[in-house]
Structures are given as C-alpha cells and as structure tokens.
C-alpha cells in the first residue's frame, strides 16, 4: 500500500478480506469438518468444501449484481440444499453461528501486512481519519470486529460498516454514501479527498467511483 498518495486524501476507507486479512490456512478445512459433523452430512468432505465455495461465489456475484446483502442463515441453507440435507425448522441457528465463530477465532485470520498499524498510525498522525467498509457472508461483521480488536487495530477506525448490519452491500452506492456521510459527521471532507481501498474491481472500485468517490485497487 506504499503507492497510495497519503497527502492527496483526508479519509481512507478500507475493505477487509484480501485487503487487510486472509483466512488462516487451516480454518477452511476445519470449518468443513465442523459443518459436516454439526449437520450430520454424509457427503464426502471435498463435496462439503465444494458446496460452501459454490455458495460463496454465487453470493458474491449476486451481491455485486443487486447491491443487497444475503443473510448468513440463507447461505447456510443454500449449502445444505446443495448437499441434499433436509433443513430442520428447529435448527438453533444462533448456537450454530456461535460455534462457527469460536472455530473462526481459534484459527484467527492473518494480516496481509503485519505492519499495517504503522500505516494507520501515520495516517492518524496527519490528522486524517480511517474507516472500514466490508461485505460479509458466512462470517459476520460482529466477528470481524473481534479480529480487528485481536490485532490491536480497532481503535484506528472511526467507524466500521458491514453489509450484514446495513442490509446492503458493495457495490451499492448507498453504502458508500453512508460511509461518506459518517465521515463528514466527523469533519468536512470533499469526495475527491475520500479514498476507498479494496481488492475487488466491482464491489470496491466500481462501487466507490459510482458514488462519486475515489478508489484504489489492491493487486
């Protein structure tokens, strides 16, 4: 991120996945095993993994097309449907999500840049502000906030916006507009001084530019 012109902008909005963090290398396999056990799935482990991946990719594409968030429970139900698992109407989804969160935080995501706090501190030292704007899927914003707190990064963010809490998703211009309005509630910032940084050309870059804001693509 050293190529970002810090002098040009007054506010920096960051995406989460593949911009700040990536999954722990062991988590996905352990999640697949947990899901298979939790729902008594008889399909082989590789089919469970394939179903989760398929639903995840389809959900990303759907959110990019509609600008709407797809709830966590809906995603789980889609996975079970792909695996021909009957969906029990008495499933305790809150307990299910809590178990997944415990597993996720046990295999804590990794920072893409272990020294990202140095960049954040530099931005703040210039009197500028930072926020987070992230789509969520199987992992909620509440859980992702715990990741930021674990790495001592949460205090750098003036605010955090997650699609599951807003009901809309990037690239919907409305979620970028809300982020911009929250920034201006802190202090006046022109749209040309507001930069969103992310890895997705559609969700992050098109979303920000369609809202009249600036964007930087992480490669």
Q: How would you describe the overall organization of this protein?
A:
- There is one protein chain.
- This protein has nine helices and seven strands, in the order E-E-H-H-H-H-E-H-E-H-E-H-H-E-H-E.
- The chain is of the alpha/beta class and 219 residues long.
- It has two domains: 11-22 and 110-217, Rossmann fold (3-Layer(aba) Sandwich), CATH 3.40.50.1000; 26-106.
- The strands form two sheets. It has a five-stranded parallel sheet with strand order 5-4-1-6-7, sandwiched between helices. A two-stranded antiparallel sheet has the order 2-3.
- Helix 6 (141-150) links the parallel strand 4 and strand 5.
- Helix 1 (27-38) crosses helix 2.
- It is elongated and about 55 Å long.
- The model has no long low-confidence stretch (mean pLDDT 97).
- InterPro entries: HAD-like_hydrolase_domain (IPR051828), HAD-like_sf (IPR036412), HAD-SF_hydro_IA (IPR006439), HAD_sf (IPR023214).
- Keywords: Hydrolase.
- Pfam families: Hydrolase.
- This is HAD family hydrolase.
